[in-house]
Amino acid sequence: MASGWNRIARRIRVPLGFAFAAFFLWLARPTPVFLAVSLVLVVPGILLRACASGYVKKNAELTVTGPYAHTRNPLYLGSMLIAFGFALAARSLWAALVLAVLFAAIYIPVIRSEEEYLRSVFSGFPEYAAAVPRLLPRIVAAPTTGSAPGRFSAALYRKHREYNALLGAASMYAALILKQVFFK
Fold this sequence. Notes:
single chain, mainly alpha, Four Helix Bundle (Hemerythrin (Met), subunit A), 7 helices
């Protein structure tokens, strides 16, 4: 049952995100102040995702440098910052609660499934997992014994199409501003 839900969760997370965006916009009651304050979460989330995508070489190597030296899941952490930033912009407790439930239902099994895969493919994963927290980042980067220091790669950023997070956030802010202006 758990592995079945893991497969389903991985497949539905993106389409579910679009469905949640519609629900979110319906509930949203944005104001200029809350839109501005939400940037405190959204901008770091976008930057974290951008940075992480420029380090990760999916399925080719265990990435342990850059943001991956602070948290094993910087992309998911970035997504959470963005999502909860928008929940703040929406001024909707319901949107925040539904979002928290969806993140738990989708991302906990996805992260566990990905960790099982990494553990089976990369022999250094257990040591890495022992040194680097799953989600909430450590302040000081974990030591990267035996691995070459990684560098941000703009080519990887483009390959992973992470600019879509920035475009999506800009679109969401545009929709919130339109709602605030025209549907008070």
